[in-house]
Fold this sequence. Notes:
Elements lengths: L1 E3 L8 E4 L2 E11 L7 E8 L5 E7 L3 E5 L2 E11 L2 E5 L6 E4 L16 E7 L2 E6 L3 E9 L12 E6 L4 E5 L7 E5 L4 E5 L3
Antiparallel strand pairs: 1-6, 2-3, 2-6, 3-4, 4-5, 7-8, 7-10, 8-9, 10-11, 12-13, 12-15, 13-14, 15-16
Amino acid sequence: MKVEGNDLRPGFVIEHEGKLWVITKTQHTQPGKGGAYMQVEMKGLKDNVKKNERFRSSESVEKVFLEEKGVDYLYRDGEEYVFMDPESYEQLSVNPDCFNAPAAFLEEGMRVTLGLYEGTPMWLKLPAQVVVEVAEVEPSLKGQTVTSSYKPAVITNGLKVMVPSHIDNGMKIVVATEDSRYIERYKS
């Protein structure tokens, strides 16, 4: 579907220069001389490369529709990760380049969202937060208060997270998958 340059909006996925891009920001500009244009900030779906581009209002670009599907993680097969569509039981192999967060957060049976373009996986979105267990953390020093400082910890999937000083080995914590940031102590 063709879309004119001045109709581009954040969230649109377009095909430009042979690649798929998701638009993150737009700004309509009308200079004193010359025609109006849309200043667009976009990110490559496959490689996360950011790019700024100007589209004149007379230009048209191809808007792409991605199919979104909830899939369950099964296992890792070499470099790829295998997921299953819970409705059709079809298995899909996904390259880790498509992930929005470290693959270490994947757990067997975890439901994730997969974006497909013409049947090809383009991106994979993990849940925003996950509950993990602290495997190893430095002991707290006497006199430190709960909010005064953070210390490094290794969680069971091998990733390092900065946690408050009151967190100890074996505790469960909530972590943001996007940037491996500590959110809170898990309360079951």
